[in-house]
Write a sequence for this structure.
């Protein structure tokens, strides 16, 4: 039976702005930032270079063959040279095919490797960030950056460069051929060329803004979907399906509008470019016919001239398109860069100690703490000491700062003032990894991975043997129910352990803490999620787990709190009472009042530690 106030404010908020825009970066900054990820593969990029250089040259030659056919076969009606021309044509086409294959294969390989390394390193960087980062960021947006944004950058850093080079070379070859055939005609035709460059520039800004908005919206779409599905039970119980759909549609609509904005710009651009193409084509035909009549140009030359000219607009337009797709990629890059710039608020000092063996003496000395971006202290001037093997119970109303003490002890954050020590070492002088090795944690909601029971227990110590796992499960009173599962220890528990009951999950978590065999134990209301009976069942395994370890426990359970060596009563982040159970009861302060209040209702097993509130409800 529990006796506690359970009124926490609404956590589920759904503002219109789920994901903020990332700070803008220049193209140059983006390139220097992401090039290092491609650098290991630069030799393969060099390898693609000959392909990029040769492919447009082959095209140039193929078009030239057309002139030869017209001038040597068609106009004189002479079948003689046909065969060698045809043979060259087929040969060049085969060569172009082979080169295209090699180029595409290498480019995909390098691009894939680039994405692989960037994505893995970004993930590993995120793993190293402090907890507050994850508390601040919508999960769906993080996933969207890790997946689609990473892929978008590749087109900027790698394929973008390759394509640009290929376009430029094609332009150079074709323009060269034009000049070679008839330089005056070439000059006439190239008059409009600058238009192809300057017109797209004008649209680039619109497209870049639209691209940013699209990336941001795509993060929001993932966030809404993730939040909605992971709270499916809440959504259905409160009949909020339609509201969730509206929220989802709203973000999609934003994405759609941004998409239309860039489409408008692109769609306007395309006819403008075509118009310029038509104008210069007509000018060439006009001038070309005149030259033909004057005998300064052969028919074949005029025809291939027009072909080269037509072929020229493709790559020019391609360059324009590339610049807009680079803006899309750069919007993605900005979102990745924002994450890369996040620094963990907790890190190892260069001379940090890696404590091999800890006794488990914990001291808080005048510790004050304020969460980042929070106006007031969560803890103020907290001092206490827990000797090795002893148990300290934390008691106090909701929001008093109990869980915050745990977060500081695990060094998810460093205190704003004061010091926390383990075996006399300030936590800031210890390596974060080494510190956490000595601590086992059990939380209100038992966290499990979608893996087998065995893997979930071994999470506490990955090199544990099967024997040790079974022993831990037995000590946690979990062996029996595990043996009854369809595949025993090999049963997969489902995401968040949905296929297990709350009590079963908690006993697996106890087994995990057991196998970690750490000198320090942190228990944050380990029985509060359970019904009285299952709560009672985990008490015995909990006691076994606690014996011989320094334990700090937040609990509303009479048994565990009363057995504690000392009890710390917190209120609004300050210690207001401290002492053993009997002391505190006789002292007649806050603790005694809470204790009496609960005893009135339920003398058997629980006390209120969350304080009496106006809406206090007691479980039957
Ligand atoms: N990540 C955070 N960022 C900002 N403020 C926070 C954060 N986490 C907790 N707080 C604030 O710090 C205070 C202490 O919170 P804490 O979680 O330690 O309370 P608690 O005693 O564990 O409460 P409960 O019994 O409800 O679990 C609260 O006022 C809370 O709003
Ligand atoms: Mg808490």
């Amino acid at each position: 039976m529990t006796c506690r106030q359970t009124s926490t404010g609404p956590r589920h908020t759904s503002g219109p702005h789920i994901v903020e825009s990332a700070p803008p970066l220049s193209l140059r900054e983006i390139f220097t930032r992401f090039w290092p990820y491609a650098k290991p593969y630069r030799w393969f990029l060099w390898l693609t270079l000959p392909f990029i250089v040769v492919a447009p040259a082959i095209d140039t030659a193929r078009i030239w063959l057309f002139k030869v056919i017209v001038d040597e076969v068609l106009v004189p009606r002479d079948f003689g040279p046909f065969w060698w021309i045809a043979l060259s044509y087929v040969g060049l086409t085969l060569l172009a095919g082979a080169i295209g294959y090699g180029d595409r294969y290498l480019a995909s390989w390098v691009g894939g490797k680039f994405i692989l390394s960037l994505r893995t390193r970004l993930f590993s960087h995120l793993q190293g960030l402090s907890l507050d980062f994850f508390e601040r960021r919508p999960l769906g947006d993080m996933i969207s950056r890790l997946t689609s944004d990473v892929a978008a950058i590749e087109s900027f850093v790698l394929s973008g460069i390759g394509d640009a080079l290929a376009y430029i070379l094609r332009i150079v070859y074709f323009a060269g051929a034009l000049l070679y055939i008839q330089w005056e005609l070439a000059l006439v035709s190239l008059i409009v060329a600058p238009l192809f460059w300057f017109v797209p520039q004008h649209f680039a800004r619109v497209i870049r803004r639209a691209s940013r908005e699209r990336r941001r919206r795509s993060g929001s779409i993932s966030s809404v979907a993730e939040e909605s599905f992971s709270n499916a039970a809440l959504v259905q119980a409160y009949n909020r399906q339609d509201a969730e759909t509206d929220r989802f549609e709203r973000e999609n609509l934003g994405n759609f509008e941004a998409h239309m904005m860039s489409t408008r710009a692109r769609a306007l651009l395309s006819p403008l470019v075509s118009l310029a193409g038509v104008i210069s084509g007509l000018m060439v035909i006009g001038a070309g016919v005149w030259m033909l009549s004057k005998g300064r140009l052969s028919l074949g030359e005029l025809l291939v001239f027009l072909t080269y000219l037509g072929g020229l607009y493709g790559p020019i337009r391609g360059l324009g398109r590339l610049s807009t797709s680079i803006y899309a990629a750069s919007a993605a890059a900005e979102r990745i860069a924002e994450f890369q710039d996040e620094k963990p608020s907790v890190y190892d000092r260069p001379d940090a100690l890696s404590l091999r063996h800890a006794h488990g003496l914990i001291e808080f000395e005048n510790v004050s703490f304020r969460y980042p971006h929070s106006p007031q202290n969560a803890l103020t001037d907290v001092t206490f000491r827990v000797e090795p093997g002893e148990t300290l119970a934390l008691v106090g109303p909701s929001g008093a700062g109990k869980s915050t003490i745990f977060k500081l002890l695990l060094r998810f954050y460093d205190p704003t003032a004061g010091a926390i020590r383990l075996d006399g070492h300030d936590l800031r002088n210890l390596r974060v990894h080494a510190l956490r090795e000595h601590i086992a944690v059990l939380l209100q909601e038992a966290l499990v991975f979608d893996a087998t029971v065995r893997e979930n227990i071994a999470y506490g110590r990955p090199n544990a043997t099967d024997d040790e796992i079974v022993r831990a499960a037995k000590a946690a009173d979990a062996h029996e129910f595990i043996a009854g599962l369809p595949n025993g220890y090999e049963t997969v528990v489902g995401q968040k352990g949905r296929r297990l009951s709350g009590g079963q999950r908690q006993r697996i978590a106890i087994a995990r803490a057991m196998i970690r065999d750490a000198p320090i134990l942190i228990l944050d209301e380990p029985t509060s999620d359970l019904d009285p009976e299952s709560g009672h069942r985990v008490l015995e395994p909990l006691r076994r787990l606690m014996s011989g370890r320094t334990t700090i426990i937040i609990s509303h359970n009479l048994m565990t709190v009363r057995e504690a060596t000392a009890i710390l009563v917190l209120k609004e982040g300050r210690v207001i009472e401290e002492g053993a159970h009997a002391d505190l009861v006789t002292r007649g302060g806050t603790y005694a009042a809470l204790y009496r209040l609960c005893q009135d209702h339920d003398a058997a097993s629980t006390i209120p530690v969350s304080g009496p509130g106006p809406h206090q409800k007691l479980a039957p």
Q: What stands out?
A: Residues 241-293 form the longest helix (53 residues). The longest strand covers residues 362-369. Residues 8, 132, 135, 371, 374, 378, 396, 398-404, 610 surround adenosine-5'-triphosphate (ligand 1) (CB under 6 Å). The chain has a mean pLDDT of 84.
